[in-house]
Structures are given as structure tokens and as C-alpha cells.
Amino acid sequence: MSAAQLPDQVDAVVVGAGLAGLAAARAVHTAGRSVLVLEAGDGVGGRLRTDVVDGFTLDRGFQVLLTAYPEVKAQLDLDALDFRRFDPGALVWTGRRLYTMADPRRRPSLMVASGVAPVGAMLDKVRLAGLVHRLRKKDPADLLRAPDRTTIQSLRDIGFTTRMIDRFFRPLLGGIQLDEGLTGSARMSDVVLHCLAVGDAGVPAKGMQAIPEQLAARLPDRAVRLGHEVVSVGQGEVRLAGGRVVRADAVVVATEGPVASRLLADETGHTAVADPGSRPVAAVWFAAPAPPVHHKLIILDGAHSGPALNVAVMSSVAPEYAPDGQTLVVAACPGVAPADDEGRAVLAAEVRAQLTRWWGRGVADWRVLRVDAIHHGQPEHRPPFDPKRRVALGDGMFVCGDHRDTPSIQGALFSGRRCGNAVVESLAG
Length: 429
Ligand SMILES: Cc1cc2nc3c(=O)[nH]c(=O)nc-3n(C[C@H](O)[C@H](O)[C@H](O)COP(=O)(O)OP(=O)(O)OC[C@H]3O[C@@H](n4cnc5c(N)ncnc54)[C@H](O)[C@@H]3O)c2cc1C
Known about the structure:
Layout: E1 9-15, H1 19-30, E2 35-38, E3 50-53, E4 56-59, E5 65-66, H2 70-75, E6 83-85, E7 90-93, E8 98-101, H3 111-116, H4 122-136, H5 140-143, H6 151-158, H7 162-177, H8 186-198, E9 201-204, H9 210-216, E10 224-225, E11 230-234, E12 237-240, E13 245-253, H10 257-263, E14 278-288, E15 298-301, E16 310-313, H11 314-317, E17 327-334, H12 341-359, E18 367-379, E19 392-394, E20 397-399, H13 409-428
Parallel strand pairs: 1-2, 1-13, 2-10, 7-15, 13-20
Antiparallel strand pairs: 3-4, 5-9, 6-9, 7-8, 11-12, 12-13, 14-17, 14-18, 15-16, 16-17, 19-20
Helix pairs in contact: 1-9, 1-13, 4-8, 6-8
Bound molecules: flavin-adenine dinucleotide.
């Protein structure tokens, strides 16, 4: 699509076709207003992209959708996504072998196995059951309003032992929130634990990019234009690389937080949106001849035996992710994002050595399909964490993205919808 075919003027222009931008565009379109989404990349989805490599479905980085996110109900059709679910619970590597940890309410048959797993003391398991019971009954919005502190402080205050924190919470929450140090917001961790307790984690059969594609399909043809990088934004207009200008009554910046901060800075460097900071993450994808375990459980490294904090046999959860008779394993490594091929090869070798300690020499035969290194995996979320930052900046300027709400799929979708509604209100006024 050439820039010449872009409209000159629309009601709202959205910069970025990630979940937030698409959700904002949908709210504007639903209200009967014209909207144009300009995306620098070659597909929709932003941080939710998927590629097919040698017949394997590889998301860009390992991630999952939690079905209990409130915006799933509000904005997505899970059935149409052919959603494939992990089993609730986890396998935990303790340095000797893998042990099962499961919520006894959801997997009563695993109650004894979970109770005796040397992942924490018996009192830890009792405290975990109490925490899950308490969080299950809460509304996520209330959890986000509770007094905040770091996750590690919160877990210590509850009385969990260091062993329980290191073997269970650090790989579980650290993996989901890209926060191995557990220095992020306890409010956020409580929301994640709530969602894990009441819903499922999983992926669409065709990969995570199916989620933004579902949102984009609800917009008019040609509302989303790919390969159009916006280089500056101002009141009533955006300028593209190449100099083309599109005018709009409302301008929505729906890029990653650090890019939004730059785009929304004035000539003195003052910006309407502070750079939220970045949590990096890498993922190593392996093709294996057979599954190393026969479970649909996430696997947590509770022994810190290498760079991978979470491992998943994706083809056991979503058979569509691998060609028939083959196995796809992903190892997620929060906190690192090697900048070059050499760094990626070193990381893959370290992960292979780690998994060889778990599963033996057969891992030597696994083929590395790809190493993803993502510098801006999620924005920072240190306490006290403000989950509902302003999206209307004045003068027809708006901003949305996971840096305005929680650093998650939920946060991106919610901020986009909230921003789109604010745009509609301002256009009506
Ligand atoms: C590896 C990884 C694992 C994760 N795991 C989970 C998980 O398990 N569960 C969960 O809920 N969340 C997870 N997340 C977070 C989640 O993916 C993000 O919070 C969410 O996708 C952010 O969406 P967004 O729309 O705010 O931003 P983005 O998806 O980053 O979208 C921004 C868009 O703006 C475009 N853009 C940028 N600059 C320009 C420009 N100048 N002109 C035009 N377009 C531009 C970008 O190309 C991009 O498409 C994970 C993220 C990563 C990377």
C-alpha cells in the first residue's frame, strides 16, 4: 500500500496496531467515526506476533492468554480462536527431579502429590491454599486498589519461606511478569494469581497473533495500514517517514511506552508520557523428536539451574504448533535479550545445558528453531503501581498501551478500549 493512497483526513488516527491500538480503533469505529491505524511493522499485533518456521508455530517470545482477564470476555471470542489450554498447576524442577504442584480444588487427584512435593514446607502449602482461596473471591479491580509493595515483600509478609518463594513464586510470577527479582507490584501479582486460580492459561491454535487478527478483522477494510512508520505527532496531525501528513481530529499514540514517550516529547525534550522503562525477555524454541514430559503443565525452574525460568512443551498443549509426530519446546528467559547472533547462540547453548541436566543427553539432539530476544518485553511496574494512567492528554491527543494500565494483554486491551471511548467522547463534544 503506498502512502499516496492514505486518506488525508479522518476522525481519529491511531499510531500502532498492537492490541491497544486495535482496541482503541474498534471503539472509535463502533461509534460510527472514521479511523485509520498506521503500523510501522509488516503485520498487526505488536508484541503478539507469530511466525511459521519449518512447519512449527513460533510466537515472538513465549506468552499465554489468561482466560480470566476481564477484557477477554469484553473483546475476544475464545471459541473462534480455537483456544488450547494448559492444565492448571505446574511442574517444578527442584534440582533433582520434577514435582507436581496443583490447586487441590481444581485437581483433587494431585492433592497428595502437591502436598508432599519438596517445593516448600507443609505450612507453605497451607498458606498457598489460603492465599488462593482469598484471591479467588476478589475482583481484579479491587486487588489493583489495595495497598501496594513489592511482590517479594508481600510474600514474605504472608509468611512464605525462602524455599517456597524461590522454588515456586519466583519462576511462576517472575516468568509471567518478566520479574525474576519479584521487585514489581504485589497488586499486579495478586491479579495474576487470581486469574490463574479462576481461569486457564493458553494459546490460540494458530498462535498468539490470532488475537490481534481477530480484533483487526472487525475493522473496515483498509482501516489498518502496515509498513507506515509515524515519525512525529502533533495536534491534529501525524507525519509519516517520507513526509506524508495525515490530519485527524483525534491523534492516538498506541506504541510501546518508550516510543510513546519520544513521540510525545516537545522540542525541549519535555514529554507528556514518561518512559516506563523496559523489562527484557528471550525465548529459545526447540524442535524435539519426542516430548520430554507427558503433561500439559507449565514447567518452572525452582532451582535456578540456568537462564530459563519457564519451559513449556507447546505441542502437548496445542498440537497445531508442531508438524505431526514432532515436538515443540520453548524455554523462556526473563531478564535477558541478547543483542546479536553470538549472544543468542550462547543463550541457546546455556539453555540446552540446563535442560540436559533435567532430561538427559537426548536434549543434545534437539534442534534450535529460533532464539527471540525482546528488549521491551513489558514496561516496569514497580510499587506503588498506578494501574489506570490518563489516556486523554488534551488538545485532541491521546495515548494508550500496556504502559497506561497493567503490563499485560489485559492492560493493553483495557487501555485501548478506555482510550477509544475517550476519543469518541471528545469527538462528540
Ligand atoms: C515475550 C513476551 C511475553 C509476554 N508474556 C505475556 C503473558 O504471558 N501474558 C500477558 O498478558 N502479557 C504478556 N506480555 C505482554 C503483552 O504482550 C503486552 O503487554 C501487549 O501485547 C502490549 O500491547 P500494546 O498494544 O500495548 O503494545 P505493542 O504490542 O507493543 O504495540 C505497539 C505497536 O506500535 C507499533 N509502532 C511503534 N512505533 C511506531 C511508529 N513510530 N509508527 C507506527 N507504528 C509504530 C509497533 O510496531 C507495535 O505494533 C508479554 C510480552 C512479551 C514480549
